[in-house]
Design goal:
The chain is α+β, with helices and mostly antiparallel strands. The chain has a single domain, classed as SH3 type barrels (Roll).
């Protein structure tokens, strides 16, 4: 499948517990622009969480259930795009696409990611 900037996707995230490393399906947002030529076919993603959404930081963006973009995001409940939780993965690791966010929302998310990276 061809993924693009603004797609909300599901992929298996590894996490470490007291009993070892496990994987759990988690949502993420594609932030890389694939309309430009790239050497590798990897995706740059920002993690999405539904935890602690009442305390959104300057490096995060809330996708609230009441927001106009929520339905098209494919998310099940209000969630936060974490501008400090970035990763690069091979696109084959994506399990499926949930939805997408419009470009005007992506520009706001870009600002949060820029703050996180000191840009």
């Amino acid at each position: 499948m061809n993924y693009k900037r603004g797609d909300v996707v599901i992929l298996p995230f590894p996490f470490v517990t007291t009993i070892g490393t496990q994987q759990k399906a988690r949502p993420a947002l594609i932030i890389s622009d694939h309309s430009i030529r790239r050497r590798f076919d990897d995706l740059i993603l920002a993690g999405i969480t539904s935890q602690r959404i009442s305390d959104v930081m300057d490096t995060e963006f809330l996708i609230d259930e009441q927001a106009g973009c929520f339905a098209q995001s494919g998310l099940k409940k209000s969630s936060v795009v974490r501008g400090e939780y970035l990763m690069t993965i091979p696109k084959d690791l994506v399990a499926r696409k949930l939805g997408e966010l419009p470009e005007d929302v992506m520009k706001l998310i870009d600002e949060r990611i820029g703050r996180s990276l000191g840009l």
